[in-house]
Design goal:
Layout lengths: L2 H15 L1 H8 L3 E6 L2 E5 L3 H10 L1 H11 L5 E5 L21 H5 L25 H11 L9 E4 L6 H15 L5 E5 H13 L3 H9 L3 E5 L8 H16 L3 E6 L11 H7 L3 E4 L5 H18 L9 H8 L4 H18 L5 H7 L1 H7 L5 H11 L4 H5 L5 H17 L4 H7 L5 H17 L1 H15 L1
Parallel strand pairs: 2-3, 4-7, 4-8, 5-6, 6-7
Antiparallel strand pairs: 1-2
Helix pairs in contact: 1-2, 1-4, 6-7, 8-9, 12-13, 12-14, 17-19, 17-22, 19-21, 20-21, 21-22
């Protein structure tokens, strides 16, 4: 069997074991030789060789036999220091620790990185500018004054995006640097696997030989005593070697329940950065960026003015939901052959919009607007047509239309039983005035911000 044939077999293995397993465990393997019915493969570390032997040897042997029917066994060895010896099939032997080899392999045991998550695609705004600046500094690969960098925030605020962006940037700037990125769950899984197989020295060699260790969602190891202890010792060993550590979590270190105090203390000794919930301007910027990406797939689709502003107003809790809504919108418009306007947006995203507006009601908007203009709520929704009441009423109707999923007839009923055409007129009038009248535009912005708090 040749190296070229092994390359073809690997592609078949990719389909058998899945992309993630292939990237992490199969891709680093190199075919060396086939002698006396034994196929010998080079592996970067003992740990990886043992893991592949225990979990994927049958699948590999099956594929190898299609090319070389005489092959009966597989062996995995670290090159230059390994020797083929009599022993159980797949035995991995080494005359010395594999640390130098591990240090030369920057992709060793690293979880797959999303190619979309780079600094170029990260939209920066006030809620995340500090986190972005800190991530950029670490990604330069030079000495920094803080270690570790701890990023925390709620779901969909950009923690994982920044983690992937740092890893991409480091690999581009310093290809020889050993950057290890994985989730806390993967760290725990590999730790348990090493304990079970009595391969703790291999585990320690891998995690102590890295130049940059990146652990995502560290809250996962809370309450898991042995894993926390090993993480603590790994952390200390890397800091003592002046190696950079970058960690993310869903809350500040001191607020992670069931995390040992000594681990919390270590996590807090560097720079702890909060990614705040997005504001309207940042959400709008993200949508505009995503629209440009969608145009690569749907170059002919038109999107009406005001749709992005509407979505940025209405979907305020989670950027992933926001991006998913836009993706669905473009796909739906393409399938039905229609332009993306407000009507299609509300039809296509009715479930998302309903979920996002549970905290905001027509009554709350009415109260906020009446307080802003210092008029009684009963006068604003009542029959009086004085301008001092009519204009706030139209503002409230406009905000109800933009910030809730209520239909025009529903909104009309909440405003003293008015007809839907009255609501349409009021919304249209405010749209005109916000362009012509700076005071109206300022009022709308103040009210919108207050209602989103």
């Amino acid at each position: 069997m040749t190296e070229e044939m092994w390359g073809q077999l690997r592609q078949r293995l990719r389909k058998t074991v899945g992309q993630n397993n292939y990237t992490t465990w199969i891709e680093p393997i190199r075919f060396r030789s086939a002698v006396d019915g034994i196929a010998l493969f080079d592996v970067p570390t003992n740990f990886l060789g043992n893991y592949v032997n225990q979990n994927f040897a049958d699948a590999i042997l099956h594929e190898v036999k299609t090319a070389e029917p005489d092959i009966r066994r597989l062996k995995f060895a670290v090159p230059a220091v390994a020797a083929v010896a009599d022993g159980p099939a797949g035995e991995t032997t080494s005359a010395r620790p594999a640390t130098p080899r591990a240090a030369s392999n920057p992709t060793l045991a690293t979880a797959p990185l999303d190619t979309r998550f780079t600094f170029d695609t990260f939209v920066v705004g006030k809620p995340n500018e500090l986190a972005h600046a800190a991530a950029r500094r670490v990604a330069e690969g030079g000495p920094v004054t803080f270690n570790p960098l701890f990023l925390y925030g709620g779901v969909g605020l950009g923690k994982t995006h920044l983690m992937h962006a740092i890893a991409h940037e480091l690999r581009q700037r310093k290809p020889g640097m050993n950057v290890l990125y994985l989730s806390a769950e993967q760290f725990m899984y590999r730790f348990v696997q090493a304990l079970r197989d009595r391969k703790m020295m291999d585990f320690k060699e891998i995690f102590r030989s890295v130049d940059v260790l990146m652990v995502d969602d560290v809250q996962f190891i809370a309450g898991k005593g042995s894993t926390q202890e090993e993480f603590f010792h790994t952390f200390n060993a890397l800091v003592d070697q002046n190696k950079q550590i970058i960690i993310s979590g869903d809350r500040a270190p001191g607020e992670i329940k069931d995390m040992e105090e000594r681990v919390k203390s270590r996590l807090q000794c560097g720079l702890v950065v909060d990614l705040h919930p997005t504001d309207y301007e940042l959400r709008l910027g993200i949508l505009q960026s995503k629209v440009e990406q969608q145009r690569e797939t749907y170059p002919d689709l038109e999107i009406d003015e005001g749709v992005l502003e509407f979505l940025a107003h209405r979907i305020s809790t989670n950027v992933r939901v926001l991006e998913g809504a836009l993706t669905r919108l473009f796909a739906f418009a393409s399938l039905v052959g229609r332009e993306i306007n407000m009507e299609l947006t509300q039809d296509c995203l009715s479930d998302v919009l309903r979920a996002s507006e549970r905290k905001l009601t027509v009554e709350e908007i009415q109260r906020r607007v009446s307080d802003h203009y210092n008029i009684r709520l009963s006068d604003m929704i009542g029959p009086k047509r004085l301008r001092s009441y009519a204009r706030p009423r139209q503002v409230a109707m406009y905000l109800c239309k933009r910030m809730t999923s209520r239909s025009l007839p529903e909104i009309g009923r909440r405003f003293g039983g008015r007809d839907h055409t009255t609501v349409m007129h009021g919304v249209k009038r405010i749209e005109e005035l916000k362009v012509q009248d700076g005071q109206i535009a300022e009022d709308l912005e103040l009210l919108r911000r207050a209602l989103e708090e």
